[in-house]
């Protein structure tokens, strides 16, 4: 069972401490695994009390999910950040290249790769960790991208098709590259390779987008 404790009300939460706790927890999760990381460990590594850790996070599950979300946000890939980006009124192909590049940089980030391997390694012994990771990481990315596609569809795209496009876009970006990266048989891509890789994924995604829409949008 995940560790739990009620939050104390009325205490100011320092953003600096919040981020410090997240950073320490991320390092411990990667180094020791989810099951072998306790809130006591996190408090000690952060140089704060266990009570302070619980004032920011209800339990270890919430802390793990927050660490995943924080990593996605560092690449401007959560829903709010992506939707704010649509305010620039970029053509869809340009915007997809922009966010697709960030997506590749995220999935090949050494910490992200380490956490992905951790989740796979603990999937049998601690199965709920896989769901925590999926909901805060891949699942959240699909939800965020679906909002972008729905926005650009301008009424010509259903919610269901927006979600399917988001799944297709993520799959095209990951391709076999991500499998090889996780297995350690391929290095992270450099800028030129990322651009070429994203270009192909965007071209294929736009074909799907135009198929789903009643009015084609470039």
Number of domains: 2
Unreliable stretches (pLDDT < 50, length at least 5) are: 1-12
Rg, Cα atoms, Å: 19 Å
So, CATH architecture of the largest domain?
Orthogonal Bundle
CATH superfamily of the largest domain: Tetracycline Repressor, domain 2
Main pleated sheet: none
In the CATH scheme, what's the topology name of the largest domain?
Answer: Tetracycline Repressor, domain 2
User: Would you count the extended β strands for me?
Assistant: 0
Helix residue percentage: over 70%
Average pLDDT, rounded to a whole number, is 91
Number of helices: 11
Detailed description of the structure:
Helices cover 72% and strands 0% of the residues. The protein is mainly α.
């Amino acid at each position: 069972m995940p560790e739990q404790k009620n939050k104390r009300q009325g205490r100011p939460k320092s953003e600096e401490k919040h981020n410090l706790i997240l950073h320490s927890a991320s390092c411990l999760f990667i180094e020791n695994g989810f099951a072998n990381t306790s809130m006591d460990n996190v408090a000690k590594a952060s140089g704060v009390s266990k009570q302070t850790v619980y004032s920011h996070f209800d339990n270890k599950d919430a802390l793990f999910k927050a660490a995943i979300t924080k990593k996605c946000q560092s690449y401007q890939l959560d829903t709010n950040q992506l939707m704010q980006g649509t305010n620039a009124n970029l053509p869809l192909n340009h915007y997809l290249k922009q966010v697709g590049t960030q997506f590749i940089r995220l999935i090949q980030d050494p910490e992200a790769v380490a956490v992905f391997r951790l989740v796979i390694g603990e999937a049998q012994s601690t199965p709920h960790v896989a769901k925590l990771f999926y909901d805060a990481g891949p699942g959240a990315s699909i939800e965020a991208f679906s909002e972008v596609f729905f926005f650009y569809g301008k009424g010509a795209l259903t919610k269901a098709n927006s979600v399917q496009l988001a799944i297709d876009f993520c799959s095209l970006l990951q391709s076999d590259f991500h499998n090889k990266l996780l297995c350690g048989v391929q290095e992270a891509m450099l800028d030129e390779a990322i651009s070429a890789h994203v270009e192909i994924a965007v071209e294929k995604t736009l074909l799907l987008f135009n198929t789903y829409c009643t009015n084609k949008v470039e």
